[in-house]
Amino acid sequence: xxxxxxxxxxxxxxxxxxxxxxxxxxxxxxxxxxxxxxxxxxxxxxxxxxxxxxxxxxxxxxxxxxxxxxxxxxxxxxxxxxxxxxxxxxxxxxxxxxxxxxxxxxxxxxxxxxxxxxxxxxxxxxxxxxxxxxxxxxxxxxxxxxxxxxxxxxxxxxxxxxxxxxxxxxxxxxxxxxxxxxxxxxxxxxxxxxxxxxxxxxxxxxxxxxxxxxxxxxxxxxxxxxxxxxxxxxxxxxxxxxxxxxxxxxxxxxxxxxxxxxxxxxxxxxxxxxxxxxxxxxxxxxxxxxxxxxxxxxxxxxxxxxxxxxxxxxxxxxxxxxxxxxxxxxxxxxxxxxxxxxxxxxxxxxxxxxxxxxxxxxxxx
Length: 365
Known about the structure:
Blueprint: E1 12-16, H1 21-32, E2 36-41, E3 58-61, H2 67-74, E4 79-82, H3 94-101, H4 103-115, E5 121-127, H5 152-171, E6 175-180, E7 182-184, H6 186-189, H7 195-202, H8 214-217, H9 223-231, E8 239-243, E9 251-252, E10 254-256, H10 257-269, E11 276-280, E12 286-287, H11 288-299, E13 303-307, E14 313-314, H12 319-325, H13 333-342, H14 357-361
Parallel strand pairs: 1-2, 1-4, 2-3, 4-5, 5-6, 6-11, 7-10, 8-13, 9-14
Antiparallel strand pairs: 9-12
Helix pairs in contact: 1-10, 2-4, 3-5, 4-5, 7-9, 11-13
């Protein structure tokens, strides 16, 4: 068991987005550590039943645009883990989207200030989306890499980071920021690196600039057509990886939800996290060749590598997280898929209803 800053009875942690992919697993971890947990969820959250397994957790309903409800949620807490966010803009006006993701962080910080007692640590979940994932500025991405997202989601998360840094300086709030790679849950990992998965992801090209990957798609021909031409009559469940014109596989940094929780817990408790932004990802990026091979091997389906007209390598360095908080991820893509197949019981399933392509969209909770 990791060292706590307080004894269990004295430590009360507010977890926002507590019914989400990372959120419920974070609640599970904290409860297992003997910590008193307050779980903040959206009013009438359809995933609320996931928290039924934790009867001693104090569940509160609050929208990130409701300061009064947030103030109530922040009373008597000693630590905050802020995971809640709107992941996809959809039909939301841009100002409403930023209001939730950026000013929601501000309202939560104001709630902490209004509570008066002060918190020992405020952990903000951010994203590799702040690095412009459609056209990463360098490889691998480090915490000091240039952040100019140029899309709605990444910009909203970057604004949240800036608000946190400045509010923390203004009101002396110890904080840490964790930037997630794409978070995957074992039961959903088997939907990735499939023909149907890439049809959905590449279909975001039709969204134009309203996609976090628009810099990747910008100026390119119809990518779904290219995929379909090379796939021929392959079935939707075919294992598929993408590669560049030089036949080098694309890469992506992934993060098993269990490792995400461990990284957040360490950011909450380890002294080396204070005042830092830390990338969280698997030990190594997953190449599309390896990802497709894992699906083909474990599900006994054919494998196909499809050549795209451009290169894409989205890779995060976790050297800082290893050195500062002792973060050593235990899972890679293949082991995550295996755990999903065998029905591992050491995590709470995501129960996502938003479709397989949302998995890659959301380097998110």
